[in-house]
Amino acid sequence: MQYTIEQLLQDGKLAEAHARFGEFLRQCEFEMNDLALSTGRLSHYEKQVDAGVNNDSFERNKIAMNFQGQINKFRRETLGKYFDIRTQQEFFDSISDRDTVIHQILDYRLTPKNYKRDAQLVEGNSSIVYQLVNPVMKRHAVALVLKVPTLREEARHEIARLTDLRHRNVMKVIDHDLSSFPYFVITEYVYGSTLPKALDINGPRPVTQTIDWLYQLTDALDYLRHKRIIHTNMRPSKIYVDDEWQVMISPFDLGQFSSAEQTYNRYVDVCQYGSPELVKCDGVGLNLQEMCVSDEYSLGLLAYKILTGKDLFEGDTIFEILTSRQRFANDKKYREQKFAELPHADLESATRKKLSLNVIIRKLLEENPKDRYPDLHKVLRALHPLTRADQKGVSIARQCYRRCLSVNKEFINDFYRAFIQRELVKNDMPVTFIKEFSDIGIKRQSAMLQMAIDLMIDVDKCGATLTKILKNENHQKYGFSDFELFIVVLIEQLKVNDPKWDDAVAQEWNRIKKETLILIQ
By CB distance 3.0 to 4.6 Å, which of 53, 400, 425, 515 could disulfide with 48? Predict the structure, then answer.
């Protein structure tokens, strides 16, 4: 199959595109002889007409027909080999489904932005989501193609505003094209997983990590509210855990730009993770201040999910979920039973002051909005001391790891650099490692590393989960010595970065190393 020059340019094959264009120009030279013959015949005929010798329209039509045949032949056999020359009708006749149109236009409009469509990730009620790759920057991005035939001017303005947002836990809007259908927005790609997937793999999170995630979510929401951004994406499926083990949220809800009706799944999410006031108005209709207080209830539900691994309001149907909600609101005994499922979450500040995450969660989950915090900033102030406090009963290893992440924001990258360097010395960097630990590969691996360390810390309780992951075919290509080196380098980096490293910490990590290697073996 021969590709057109446009296709070669689009694929970055610049040398081949030049060569193909050279072929095309040489082909054009062959057409010059036929053109000269046709031009000579036309010139001779017109001279005869001017002299009054010949005014036969048949002869002129014959010249025109022959020339038209030459043009058609050139267009079909020569031009068509090198350029996409389909007419609009021919293009639409070739379309078998809607995606063909979107892919063709999207690819054309992404090329100047140095992005290529890599894969379709998911299709929702409001958008089709594509993974993009930028081969120049060596990074991925996401294209959200809005499923709307037209875009209101207010919507264009709102989307444009999102490009100015800057917050660590809010996904960046990199670019957009709202000039014509299909309208799309490009956001950063989160190398990690959704919150539910992270909890499925690693189980409920420790109190200290829950505090960190809850603080990050609250801070991100508070930032968006101060920027006058209204969205209703506070549900687990729309929260991501990135390669640095921080939570990320989208800055906007595409549903507000869509003309489509709310889906059943979306309404289930509102019933399961929305505040009582949000459920009453079917997920719409709250103003900015009301949404701030409504978000507090959602944050409480998310904290419950992260700490227990379970939804506070359980059920397979909307009726069951709403029944669970009603019982939680009206049955005090049942309400206390649900709160009793939360783990012990008392902490102690540097000044020996007693702090409790569970007290904050209870206040967030007050049925009456007036009984919650006045605003999100007050929630932040309540959470902040907990982010600096120590919890009794937390393992020495987890405290060590948390300190390392706190004092060195580049801890994960430092680890990978050290690990790859040691692999290079040991194995002369096999092809497997070159691919897995490329610039893009490391970002993917980092998210998995965070999960792996979490499981290793609790290896005595999470051994079965860790074994299941190790049996995955993606890990079968590594040998025992690779895993051993991985753990050795990790402990070395922990020792370098932990300001409180001592014999007790070293002894605990050596125990973890030993038990993990037994599982691997």
Answer: 53
